[in-house]
Design goal:
Layout (H helix, E strand, L loop, with lengths): L1 E5 L8 E5 L9 E10 L2 H8 L12 E9 L11 E5 L11 E5 L3 E3 L6 H6 L1 H14 L7 E5 L4 H12 L3 E6 L4 H7 L3 E4 L12 E6 L6 H6 L1 E9 L4 H14 L5 E4 L6 H12 L7 E6 L3 H9 L6 E5 L10
Parallel strand pairs: 8-9, 8-11, 9-10, 11-12, 12-13, 14-15
Antiparallel strand pairs: 1-2, 3-4, 3-6, 3-15, 4-5, 5-7
Helix pairs in contact: 1-9, 3-4, 3-8
This protein binds NADP nicotinamide-adenine-dinucleotide phosphate (NAP).
């Protein structure tokens, strides 16, 4: 099969489209013919940090068709259309075929395209878990989304809208209209104004991107407000982990999210998308041959939503 394999010595991108052995699923695994895969920070940041998957193939957010299933697999059968997050079972999505355990996968709703389904897993689960699990979001609350224009940010706005929050989004000039269209009530262009300028207070701040002072964020919270750090500059993540606890001693909480693959959440989110309540924002499509370009583009930090690789089926089970 074809796969984009990490090769440290391959200049300049270290990602090479190669012919390799098709994986054989174990008794608890499903073999999936990949139809689409989206790029996440989990791919390019892991690569940058030298955390290379055992099979040397990146790609976590996938959609595809079940080719075969091991004898202990209960929920999936050949021909099922699935989507999932393979980051907990060794990545491997940049390939004609990948193996995954059942706990990484859900059935893809028929009304959702393979591309849309592959764009959703990590970004939407992260947004949901930030708002609901860590943020304890409630109807009518004032929510600030710092960095509203990437994969996670665009999902955070739409889910906060679904929870009937009042949303302020922070992004750069070129993304102001996008944030508004996705459901933000107010948009602050970070190139022109600091979000603290108006002295507005928030019940929940979800920090997806950027590098904002934790003390300024804390000051912008209402007395029982919560700040949930999702991503952004590594220095900010490090600061939040180190001083988040002491800053949370009062009623205001400064929290960090480490999102987890949860098939209940993923099934719920894919259904929301299939019902048109949320919509993955896909800025660019790539092909298997241009996977390295897709990774470089996503790693630039300026993608407006998601980057999706359409995987052309070779000898796949689907369609028959
Ligand atoms: N904690 C977790 O479990 C978890 C899970 C998934 C992802 N993450 C993290 O979440 C973050 C976001 O990931 P992502 O996939 O959405 O994509 P991303 O590629 O990091 O987001 C790109 C977007 O961020 C915006 N941006 C860049 N610098 C900004 C700044 N200073 N202020 C505000 N916006 C800024 C860019 O818009 P402009 O070009 O207009 O600035 C662009 O639209 C990453 O840091 C990732 O590592 C964390």
């Amino acid at each position: 099969m074809k796969a984009v394999v990490y090769n440290k010595g391959a200049k300049p991108d270290r990602l090479v489209l190669s012919d390799i052995q098709k994986p054989v699923p174990g008794d608890d695994e499903v073999l999936i013919g990949i139809r689409a895969v989206s790029v996440n920070a989990a791919d390019y940041r892991s690569m940058k940090m030298g955390m290379i998957p055992a099979r040397k193939i990146f790609g976590a957010d996938i959609s595809g068709v079940v080719e075969s299933a091991g004898k202990n697999v209960k929920r999936f059968n050949p021909g099922d259309e699935v989507a999932g997050d393979l980051s907990g079972c060794g990545f491997g999505g940049f390939a004609d075929f990948a193996v995954a355990t059942e706990k990484a996968l859900v059935i893809k709703p028929a009304g959702l395209s393979f591309e849309a389904a592959a764009a959703l897993p990590m970004a939407s689960m992260t947004a949901l878990q930030a708002l609901r699990n860590r943020g304890n979001i409630r109807e009518g609350q004032e929510v600030l989304v710092l960095g509203s224009s990437g994969g996670v940010g665009t999902m955070t706005i739409q889910l906060a809208r679904h929870f009937d929050a009042v949303i302020t989004a922070v992004c750069s000039t070129r993304n102001v209209e996008q944030s508004r269209l996705l459901g933000a009530d107010r948009v602050i262009d970070y190139t022109k104004e600091h979000f603290t300028a108006g002295n507005r207070k928030y019940d929940l701040i979800v920090a997806v991107n950027g590098n904002y002072s934790l003390l300024k964020c804390r000051k912008a919270l209402k007395p029982d407000g919560r700040y949930v750090l999702v991503g952004g500059a590594l220095s900010q993540i490090f600061r939040a982990i180190v001083i988040g606890k002491p800053l949370s001693l009062g009623r205001k909480k400064m929290l960090f999210l480490a999102a987890k693959t949860d098939t209940n959440d993923l099934g719920y989110l894919l259904n929301l998308a299939s019902d048109g309540i949320i919509k993955p924002v896909i800025e660019k499509y790539f092909s298997a041959e241009t996977t390295a370009e897709a990774m470089n583009y996503a790693a630039s930090g300026h993608a407006r939503g998601k980057v999706v690789i359409r995987w052309s089926p070779g000898n796949l089970y689907y369609p028959r």
